[in-house]
Amino acid sequence: MGCCGEDDDELIAPLLLANPNPNPNPNSSSSLAVLSPLNSNFSALLSADVLRSILERLSPADLARSACVCRLWRAVASERDVQERAFRAPWGVRCVVGCPSSSAFWRHNGIGRFAISHRLRRGDTVPGLALKYSVQAMDIRRLNNMMSDHGIYSRDRLLIPISKPDLLLDATCFIELDTYAKREAAVLYLEGGPDGKGGYLGRAITERGKRRILDSVKRSMQVDEGTAEYYLSISNGDPRAAILQFSEDLSWEQQRTTA
């Protein structure tokens, strides 16, 4: 949001000037306004807030280029929130949890950066998983750094390539370094989070349903809304896990008080 309650679009619009070309071709893409130090109010871009509202709309590649302009641009373009927004925007991902080992992770947001975590069960085979997730068996082996299908027996889980980008819409992904696959990926859990617990607030739950869960947790814990939201967030939206975690924290605090 802009300062004084102004909308970001209202702040950005005056910065975009018409193409300085005196004879623009209306049928050419070059006639479109392009934001650059050459044809914009460059001094206005020295405001970190205005600059942030602009850079967060760029693709990761353009964001990396903007970091080469000056120190201020580099500082804003290197912010976690700005980089994460550019990374998840094309796929509609709601949130990315965790920090990558290198900031270079954010620069490539292709579908190959994402993967589904499948916990292996008795009877699972690579061809069977390929059929289940509508992917190629060869792609599963390549993603998991396996020379053959026998590598499945030494692992607890496999990373599955995402063939349907719609799965990422409004989803929460976790940045993880898989030691077997020897790769870092934004991992999507279809059945619970990394701790194996299910029941988190998924996109299938309506806003009314979320409100009912929040109100129920508030009543159960006898706390304010902010506290209830916090414990739901750290428990991936699982009401039972949220209440259990709150009870454990409360017991620990009482023990310290009486000690």
TrEMBL record:
Name of the protein: F-box protein At1g55000
Gene3D superfamilies, sorted: 1.20.1280.50, LysM domain
Pfam families from the UniProt entry: F-box-like (PF12937), LysM (PF01476)
Gene: LOC120280798
Domain of life, per lineage: Eukaryota
Domain LysM intervals: 116-160
CDD domains listed in its UniProt record: LysM
Organism name: Dioscorea cayennensis subsp. rotundata
